[in-house]
Structure formats: C-alpha cells, structure tokens
Write a structure and sequence with these properties.
heterodimer; A: 60s Ribosomal Protein L30, Chain: A; Phosphoribosyl-aminoimidazole Synthetase, Chain A, domain 2; 2 domains; 4-stranded mixed sheet; about 30% helix; globular; B: about 375 residues; alpha/beta; 6-stranded mixed sheet; 5-stranded parallel sheet; about 40% helix; disordered C terminus
C-alpha cells in the first residue's frame, strides 16, 4: 500500500489555472510561492535563481523525459509521481545515484488548482522517497484546448556508482535475462480508466522508485550486472529486441518464466494485447552474468519493489538479432517491434 | 488462469499432437476460418509442431481484413468531411483506405475514438446531442449482437444523432464461396467457435452435405485447435464428412437466442463485398429499412467510388487459402505492419501480420 502524503492546500484566491499564472507576473508568483517553492523547498530551489549550481564528483548520468499521460490520475498513481520516478529510474538504469531533478510544467488553462496541488504533493513525496532534490524548474500555461490538463518534463542528474559498469556492449552469449517484477500493470491500469475502454479491475499502475534496489544490487554484484533497462513504452519485448539488434546477438525466452499476474493476464486476453508489449513504470530488465543470475534474482526478490523478479531467458549467438519465445506449449515465435501503438482488437 | 490455462496445458498438447501423428497417413489441407485461430496457431508455434502431412490454410475470418476499401474511405469521409464523432474498434484504425487510414484522419484533426463496445458510442451520442455519432460496425456474427443492441438502445433513448456504418459479414456464405471456387484446395474446415456461440450449428449442416466436407466447430486455445484438427483428420482419414463440435463448452446447438433476436430485430441479410474476395451473395447484414435513421449509409448518402486494391497485394488469394503470405513478392518488403499494402498485414488476426509478427521479420534491421 502506498503512503499518501497529506499536505493541506494553502488558501489561494483562485480555483483554476489561468493564462495569467504563466505570465511571470504576480499570479505566477502567487502560484509558485505557495505551490512550488514552499512545498518542494531546499537550499538550491530557494535561491529562485535562473538555474541551479550543483556539486557533482566523478562520472555523472544525465537524462530527460516528458510526461503527457491521460488520465492524469489513474489507479495506483498520478502524473506527478510518474514524472519523478520516470526520470529517477532512468538514472538508476545508468547505474547512477539520482541527485537532482529539474521540473517543468505546461499547464492547460482551466486546470483545477486542487488537482495541481495533489500532483505537487505527490511530486514532493516521490522526490523524498527517491532521495532527489528538485532544484530548478519552469511553469508555462497554454490556452484551453492546446494541452491536456498538464504536461510535465523532468530532467535528472545522478552520480554513477563506482562499482557500476553498465553498457549494452557488455552483453555476451550465455548471459541471463531477468525481469524485475510482474509485467504490464501500468499500461493495463491506464487502459482500464481510459474513456471508451473502461473496464472494472483491481489492477494498479506499478509506478515506483527503482533506484534503491538497483543501487544496492550494484553495490553487491558490481560489473556482473551487464545492462539495465527500464521497460516502459513498448514493454519488455521492445527493450529486448532493441538490445538484440544493437548487440547483434539473439535471445531465447521462456513464456512460462514471465511473471504476469492473473488480472493483468485476463485483461490482456480480453483486449487482445500481449503483456510483453504493454508499458510498465516499475519494471526493469537486467542482463547479468549467468554465474550470478540465481543469486541476483534471490536478492531482488527480497525487495518489495522487485519481489516477483524472474529469470526469463538467455542471450545466445545462435540467431543474431532475433528474440525467440518458447510458448507455454513448447512452440516458438519471434518477438518483433510493434509498428505503432497496440490497438485493442475487434473480437 | 482458470478456463484458459487448462487449454494451454503442455501435456495435453503433446497428447493431441501424438494422436494426430498416429492418425494421419497422407497429406491434408485444412482451413481455420477465423483470424483468432490463425493468431493462436502462429502465436503458440503450433504450425511447426504439426506433422508435415497437415497444411493449415488461413481463412477469411478476419473482420478487419475483409472490410471493403470503399467502406474505410466512407468512414474517413464521414470523420473528415461531415464532422461526425466516428467511433471504432481499435484495429480498424490502421487499415489502409485508398488514400489514408483512420489513424491519419485522426492525426489530421478528425474526431475518431477507439471503443471496446458500441454501447459506449450510444453514451457518447447522449453526451453530445449537437454532434452526429457514427459507430463503424464491422465484424462477423460475433460482434453483430452488440452492434444491433447499440441501435436498439439508441432507439429506446430516442436519439436522433446516432447511427452505425455497418459492414457485417457472415461465415457460412463465405465457406460456400470458397468451396464453389474450382481452385479451392481446402479439404476440411475448423469453423469459428465464437461465431457459432452466437448462431449455433444449424447453418453448417447443409454445407457439410452440399460440399461433402468435414466441418469442426473449434475454439481458440492450443488444446482446442489441436483437438479440432484431430477431429478433422479422423474424419478425413475415415472418409467421413460431418459436422462436429469441439467447442462444446461455449457452443450449443441453437446458439444464443437472445443475441440472435437482437440481430434479426435490427439487420437484414444482404449481398456483401468482401475485400479481396468480391461480392458474396447473402453474406452480410445491413440495417433494416424501418430502422434506416440509424444506418449511416442512408443518413449521410455518401457515395464514394470503388477504389482499386494495391496491384501487388495478393490478399484475396491468401484469404481463399490459395496462397500463403510467404508466397507474396512484397511480404516483408514493401508490405509490413508499419506500411501495409493490404488489410491482412494490419490486424493482429490477419494472416500476413500473424506471419510477420511471429516469424521474426525485422523492420529495424532493414531501416
């Protein structure tokens, strides 16, 4: 169960975001003072300067991501925590300890302040749990109809762990392929509340901070972890196919080893979707030395964020660039990249 | 998952495969009618597990694939030119029209919404009384009851802004058309389980008799398919041609009377153009005359000329079982899921897309 932070919304003389809140004038200051600077305060942000001056030593990782999800509140989370964890997790996949984030909003005129506040509170909670500071940002407002309530961009910087050696070039034949948790929960949770496709389900998004478990696993297993990838858009299949293509190696997967919970499996059957291609927000793929694979999975399983980790296959030099799945009944099929969005099928 | 995992049980699969291998003594060509069955055969790798004597050919039962070009052009026209809210099942959106598909129309600003149920479209019509709402009602007998129900709900709510663009097709006339083709190579059919769940078995007895061919009503899971294939092979080897029902857990003799009633209340049988197969007599549903206010074809008087299919696409031959996707010179070359020349490359139920997706063709490597 997720902890909900409760921070009462400050008294404001407006209920809705208007164009004026992006003007840079008094309304902008009212919004930022109450909503952002006070709530997310830290030494660097409180400077309210044009940018933040940071201290970093050693190798750094740097990443950015934009969040445009609809609906902005969904079972298991909202766009705010998603925007923090998304970037934090990308840094974690680089073997980095996330340190600082920027936070930029594009708000659509008419967004309820109450909704924006909830998102801000959730950003605060996510940043605290991931141990990152939000040190700079921006807020713009666009005309009604020109946005979709709220778009968020976050950019993050982290320090690469001294024992980390993560690169797709480290993948070699014989390595084990591991997924960190049950697949497809985020994509299915979003679809279950999307207008026109609603269905009743207990499935919640898996959006969560992965950096802690990744850091501790790097601390323990070091360079035996060859590569880490966040299996967000396009799902696990897309990530694996990308790496197989890039590294000119093949992958053999066992369907039976792929962790998918029963409700998600049911929803996928109903909608005609393949969980291997559905988006996750709290699942990563690791490719590790075969020698440590079992110990690594056991280690992951002890952490709540990765409790369903599983070895799903092996890297091979037999069929370069092909990701081959052995089905539940022993037949084989190749996984390719999707031509576009997965669309629910007719019947 | 209950009711699914039992039908994906590796031990049962092995037993059925062994039984098929023991039974078969000579080559047989069997057609699975439904695209959902094609999808499962390929997804589970069943085609490679079958003995070499058995050739599966993939029938026309992919609703997206057989929806005529002209109708997609109509849907695009309604969405772009008539400012309607066009509602559709997801996998219709990528099917190529003569100039563009619905996804491109959406990108151009048309109001196109992906729904899972036509009843949602009725709700949208209620919520938008100032706009016309059209549901693109494609599919076989399986989706017809829900589409019919949407018309009945629209009528009950006295909506004047709801209509359907119907392109329903029916399985038994398609089997007739395939068997009447002198080139046909099909020796037995796996009929579509879900279609028979609605319609029952009645319509299939005359087909078995007329064409002296085994028909086995079959489900969609690996065990279903293998059991259906075994039942067909046993008939073929024994020189028998009868109707059998493998999918008894879903299909009853009379089908679903309530669903049939909704269909017959709303639709009349009509001649229908099948993409790649020409016009098949009495092979589709159209909205009844007395309900024509709910028929987008009548309501909007759209006249769009029949556009020619892409010259290099052999979709028709593939859906008739005369050719395999790999026989097409453009398979995986010009024609890919990201740039389909014909509809079977679009839908996950289309034979070409099923072959492409699961055969390891790779678009990136070529890029």
């Amino acid at each position: 169960m997720k902890m909900e932070l409760s921070c009462p919304m400050p008294k404001l003389d407006f209920d809705l975001i208007t164009l004026g809140h992006g003007s840079g004038g008094i309304l902008t200051h009212k919004l930022l003072d109450a909503g952002v600077f006070d709530l997310l305060k830290n030494d660097k942000l409180s400077e309210q300067h044009d940018g933040a001056i940071l201290e970093l030593s050693g190798e750094s990782a740097f990443t950015t991501d934009s969040f445009v999800i609809n609906p902005i509140f969904f079972p298991g989370g909202n766009i705010g925590e998603l925007a923090v964890y998304g970037t934090v997790n990308d840094l974690a996949m680089c073997g980095a300890i996330p340190k600082y984030l920027s936070l930029s909003f594009i708000l659509e005129e008419g967004l309820a302040m109450e909704e924006f506040w909830k998102i801000l509170v959730s950003i605060k909670g996510a940043a605290e749990s991931a141990g990152v500071q939000i040190v700079t940002g921006d807020t713009k407002v666009v005309d009604k109809g020109k946005g979709d309530k709220i778009f968020i961009n976050t950019t993050g910087i982290g320090s690469v762990h001294s024992k980390s050696n993560i690169s797709v070039n480290n993948i070699k034949a014989g390595d084990s392929i591991i997924v960190s948790d049950q697949l497809a929960r985020h994509g299915i949770a979003i679809m279950s509340v999307r207008s026109g496709l609603e269905f009743e389900t207990d499935i919640e998004s898996d959006t969560k901070n992965l950096s802690k478990v990744v850091q501790s696993s790097i601390e323990k297993f070091g360079s035996d972890i060859h590569v880490l990838r966040d299996a967000t858009r396009g799902g696990v299949a897309t990530v694996l196919k990308e790496m197989a293509e890039k590294r000119n190696l093949g992958m053999d997967l066992e369907y039976k080893q792929i962790p998918v919970n029963e409700s998600v499996q049911g929803a996928c059957e109903m909608l005609g979707l393949d969980p291997m291609y559905v988006a996750n927000e709290g699942v990563f793929v690791s490719i590790v030395s075969n020698e440590i694979a079992q110990e690594y999975v056991d280690f992951l399983k002890r952490d709540e964020a990765t409790s369903s980790a599983s070895i799903i296959g092996t890297v091979t030099d037999k069929h370069p660039k092909q990701v081959i799945m052995t089905s539940a009944i022993g037949g084989k099929r190749a996984l390719t990249m999707l031509p576009g969005e997965q669309l629910p099928r007719i019947c | 998952m209950k009711y699914l995992s039992e039908y994906r049980d590796p031990e049962l699969v092995t037993q059925y495969l062994d039984e098929i291998k023991k039974t078969v003594t000579q080559p047989w060509t069997i057609m699975e009618v439904c695209g959902g069955q094609t999808h499962s055969l390929v997804k589970y790798g069943i085609l490679d597990l079958l003995p070499k004597e058995i050739t599966m050919v993939h029938g026309p039962g992919c609703p997206v694939c057989v929806t005529p070009l002209n109708l997609i052009d109509k849907a695009v026209y309604l969405a772009e030119e008539k400012d309607v809210i066009l509602c559709s099942f997801g996998d219709m959106l990528r099917v190529p029209g003569s100039e563009k598909n619905l996804l491109e129309a959406k990108a151009n600003g048309a109001d196109i919404r992906i729904l899972y149920s036509p009843l949602e479209a009725v709700k949208i019509a209620k919520e938008n009384p100032e706009r016309e709402v059209v549901f693109f009602a494609v599919g076989f007998e399986t989706t017809a009851p829900a589409n019919a129900l949407s018309v009945l709900h629209g009528k009950r709510a006295e909506l004047t802004n709801y209509s359907i663009l119907a392109s329903h097709v029916l399985v038994p006339p398609a089997i007739s058309a395939l068997m009447s083709d002198p080139d046909s190579v099909v020796q037995g059919f796996l009929a579509a389980g879900h279609v028979c769940t609605i319609m029952g078995l009645e319509e299939y007895y005359p087909l078995v008799e007329q064409y002296n061919i085994p028909i086995v009503v079959t489900g969609f899971e690996p065990v279903d398919l293998l059991q259906g294939i075994l039942m067909t092979v046993k008939q073929l080897e024994g020189g028998i041609a009868k109707l059998e029902n493998q999918y008894t857990r879903m299909v009853s003799e009379e089908g679903n009377p309530n669903a049939k009633q909704a269909i017959f209340e709303v639709f009349d049988v009509t001649n229908r153009m099948w993409r790649g197969m020409d016009v098949i007599p009495s092979s589709g549903y159209q909205v009844k005359k007395e309900l024509e206010q709910y028929d987008a074809n009548v309501k909007f008087e759209v006249s769009i000329e029949e556009a020619p299919e892409h010259a290099e696409c052999i979709a028709g031959d593939i859906m008739k079982g005369l050719k395999k996707p790999f026989d097409c010179t453009q398979f995986g070359k010009k024609c890919k899921p990201s740039n389909p020349l014909g509809a079977p490359m679009v839908s996950s139920e289309g034979a070409c897309a099923a072959y492409y997706n699961y055969s390891g063709e790779t678009e990136l490597a070529e890029a």
